Amino acid sequence: MARVNEFENILNDCLDRLIKGETIPSCLASYPQYAAELEPLLKTAQETIVAAAIKPRPEFRQRAAHEFQTAIRNLPVKKGWTFKWQVRWVLPVAIVLILLVGGSGTVIAATNALPDSPLYGVKLATESVQLAFTFSNEGKAELYARFIDYRVEEIVKMVENGDLAQVRLTTERMNGHLVAMADLGIKGSRSQMFASGFGLMSAPEAQTQTNTPTSTDNGSKMGITPTPSTTTEETPAQLTETDILIQHLLEDMENNLQILQDQLANAPEAFQTALQNAIDVMEAGYLQIIDSLG
Amino acid sequence: MQSEASLIRRAQMGDQVALTQLYEENFDRIYRYIALKIGDRTEAEDMTQQVFLHALQAISSYREKGMPFASWLYRIAHNQIVDYFRKKSKHATVPLDESLPIPAVGGDPKHIVEQKITIEEVVTATKQLTTAQQEVISLRFAAELSITEVAGVMGKSEGAIKALQHSAIVALRKALATE
Which of A2, A12, A51, B24 could cross-link to B122 by cystine, CB 3.0-4.6 Å? Predict the structure, then answer.
């Protein structure tokens, strides 16, 4: 009986390790006396883990999040009339003010939170709220572009922290942003996006790597509207707005790809596949957005 | 770091940020849990959405009782799955043409096809397990709960769950071998 219990504890330890991304040989090496008994069970478990790693489709994730936010706003309020008014209006207004003014310590602290941080949930929640309160497609596109930059930074940090599972998870989140951005149908509202600097919101590291004049405009990154003449002066007359947008997207893609490729060149072997996947996902995502522009 | 209890209290008062945080933290694993149990993408999507909408409507009735919030969500999901199978006349039919989503994105097609077969095989094989074995496999490998959390959700001791996990994997191995 004691041996059975010991084996079940060992099996459980190995399963925990497999779920976290360790390999079967690594687990077996820790328990050589049980290796023959463990190996077939761990192989089955591995198959199950792979099968269970199913992800919601990005379009479903986006639709479900939107409906959930709508349902939150439609929640019936059970208290008195005055309080009902306060809950309905004061809370959203307060959230908007927090996001605009940056007055919440938790939200501020969460801004730089990494996926393995307890505050990361707040960061994601804040992003969801920002999206929920951004009603124009060009505004959403700006947010997605910024979130993609955040995810790239997080992937780099998670590789440095040795957290493979978070690298994969963050790649999935990044893919979700890319797909959502492609689904926005941003082609019809190009002018306003140029005015607000859409596509120019690369990570700081990426910005230093580009020589393109328009992409170094920090005012654009902060949402400050440049004068139209600035854009047109620096833009060859023969280029259409779509061409310029595509050019900006390509710059964004190149900057972010460069960051990931630099990381890939120095990453431990265990992270190579996950990083290459992140690169592939990013490239395919950007190209899909560009393709959607026609 | 705020405790889950304080987060839930805020959510119960209608705090949008708290509700969104609970949603974000649990969405993927509730989806995986449902998808692995029913093996149908469209149904899993609808059901996942329903779980969270139901939870939103009922959150004021949630009482902690020493159990994590996630276990309450799994209970809602479990009840929906039970209802789903009750309504379906042919339980054994896995709609493979509405196959599950593929985890890898941007991978090569060969890998995706291999992945798809594995998903179908495992979903089908899982249906040959006992209800408790299915539950422990789904909670452990799809929801990625720890043994302690699974024990909490299923109302059993950790030792019992470890034994159940062992027997479930043995049974799953046999089921996969006979396919």
Answer: A51
Place of tokens 């191995």: B173
Considering chain B, what percentage of its residues have pLDDT values greater than 90?
Answer: 34
Question: B53, A68 in Cβ contact below 8 A?
Answer: yes
Closest chain A CA to residue B16 = A72
Inform me whether the C-beta atom of residue A262 falls under 8 Å from chain B C-beta atoms. no
Residues from chain B contacting residue A281 (CB–CB below 8 Å): 105-106
Say if CB A15 and CB B165 are below 8 A apart.
yes
Q: What is the share, in percent, of chain B residues with pLDDT greater than 70?
A: 80
Amino acid at A135: F
d(CA B96, CA B39) in angstroms, rounded, equals: 8
pLDDT above 80: residue A187: no
CA A217, distance to chain mean position in Å, is 23
Q: Quick check: A129 and B100 CB within 8 A?
A: no
A215 contact partners, CB below 8 Å, separation of at least 6: A200, A202, A207, A248, A251
Per-residue model confidence as pLDDT tens digits over A134-164: 877 777 888 888 889 889 989 998 998 888 8
Residue the block writes with tokens 């041996």:
A3
Contact B165 A12 (CB under 8 A): yes
Amino acid sitting at position B120: E
Angle A239-A244-A246 from CA coordinates, rounded to 5°: 125
Q: Is A84 in CB contact (< 8 Å) with chain B?
A: no
For chain B, report the end-to-end CA distance as a whole number of angstroms: 48
Task: For residue A190, count CB atoms less than 10 angstroms from its CB and return exposed for 0-12, middle for 13-18, buried for 19 or more.
Answer: middle
Mean pLDDT of all residues in B138-151 = 89
pTM for the model stands at 0.52
Contact A12 B147 (CB under 8 A): yes
Name which of B8, B10, B13, B24 to mutate to probe chain A: the one with the most chain A Cβ atoms within 10 A of its Cβ.
B24
